[in-house]
Design goal:
Blueprint lengths: L6 H13 L3 E3 L10 H11 L1 E3 L1 H18 L7 H13 L14 H8 L10 E3 L14 E4 L8 H5 L26 E7 L2 E9 L3 E5 L12 E3 H4 L7 H8 L5 E6 L2 E6 L5 E4 L13 E4 L3 E6 L8 E3 L3 E3 L3 E6 L18 E6 L4
Parallel strand pairs: 4-13, 7-8
Antiparallel strand pairs: 1-2, 3-4, 5-6, 5-17, 7-9, 9-10, 10-13, 11-12, 11-16, 14-15, 16-17
Length: 349
């Protein structure tokens, strides 16, 4: 039996809900054999007023249980509130969340990397400014070679039939390097798009426009801004739409690092990745949320010449968005990838 409330009480409750922008959640199901008038009264009588603060409360409780299951210590309400805001902001959110060091691995396991074993597998991203930060989107996981990949397979790879030296110049080569530490050239298949982009800051973002909102306060190369026309090739159009936050290239004390911030993998070929792999230009797959050291200025690779390829620029790195190339893929050359980037590193001074 339902316990009916006076009509003025129900009207007052509904008015308060409307003033607070609350949502009225109706019952999941009402029997079909109940008269229409009766259905309306049951729906009114059993309606639950769900306010925004109750949504927030339930979300924080779920987050607390999730962190506890991952082994996190008990969190004060203020820290839990700031962590929930950082999760709402997502990978594009710049805010750091200071917290105890013991909290970082459980947060990363609960939110991003369930199979994380040790904190040594993590690397802080260049835009993170707090050494005690626990924001899971401010950390990247070190990239490892794919399972089943062997150096013997790498040595049999001869898929990069590129022109002599770097493709990035394309008749635009400038001999003098001023204060930049690298230059970027963006390609779609075999077509250069835009001019070279000089990088002088320690970290640079390469990202898509996200439906025309190119920039959003980020320093770097917005690929949609290079050519505002819609790509004619369908695979280029689909691939460019997947770039999203793209990648971050950072010049750090132990080398040049690539951080994959998109929701799709990126594929990297660099003569500096591995001495044995450099003989075959092995392509590395960098999964979303992972990072890879693509060049170490302290130990630059020597210039090499591959059979059927010719001289290879040891300071040129190629990055393909979402699409791989090589013997394991249908695309044999990097120039067959819809959207790719060449990073031309400055020579030693």
């Amino acid at each position: 039996m339902l316990r009916w409330q006076p009509q003025y009480v129900r009207r007052a409750a509904r008015g308060a809900a409307e003033r607070q922008h609350c949502s009225v959640v109706k019952p999941h199901a009402i029997r079909d054999d109940v008269p229409a008038t009766r259905k309306w009264r049951v729906a009114r009588a059993t309606a639950r007023l769900v306010t925004p603060w109750r949504h927030v409360m339930f979300r924080r409780r779920a987050l607390r249980r999730r962190l506890a299951a991952a082994g996190a210590p008990a969190l004060p309400d203020d820290l839990l509130r700031r962590l929930a805001r950082a999760l709402d902001a997502g990978p594009a959110g710049p805010a750091c969340v200071p917290g105890p060091a013991a909290l970082r691995p459980p947060v990363l396991r609960a939110i991003r990397f369930p199979d994380l074993r040790e904190p040594a597998e993590l690397r802080r991203m260049p835009h993170c400014t707090d050494q005690l930060c626990c924001n899971p989107y401010h950390f990247s996981r070190l990239c490892e070679p794919e399972k089943g990949e062997s150096m013997q397979d790498a040595r049999r790879t001869n898929h990069e039939r590129l022109a002599t030296g770097s493709l990035a110049t394309d008749g635009e080569e400038r001999q003098s390097w001023e204060t930049e530490w690298c230059r970027l050239a963006y390609w779609e298949l075999q077509q250069r798009v835009g001019r070279q982009f000089s990088v002088r800051l320690r970290a640079v973002d390469v990202f898509g426009g996200g439906g025309g909102t190119c920039g959003s306060g980020r320093h770097g190369l917005c690929l949609d801004a290079l050519d505002t026309r819609e790509p004619q090739v369908e695979q280029v159009r689909k691939t460019r739409a997947k770039i999203g936050l793209g990648v971050t290239l950072s010049l750090e004390s132990d080398g040049v690092w690539l951080y994959n911030r998109s929701q799709e993998p990126v594929f990297v070929s660099s003569p500096a990745l591995d001495a044995a792999a450099a003989k075959a230009l092995l392509v590395w797959r960098v999964a979303p949320g992972h990072c890879l050291c693509i060049f170490d200025p302290a130990t630059p690779p020597p210039a090499v010449s591959l059979p059927h390829v010719g001289p290879v620029d040891p300071r040129s790195v190629r990055i393909s968005f979402a699409k791989g190339w090589g013997p394991k893929y249908s695309r044999r050359d990097v120039t067959a990838c819809p959207c790719w980037l060449e990073v031309l590193l400055a020579p030693p001074s």
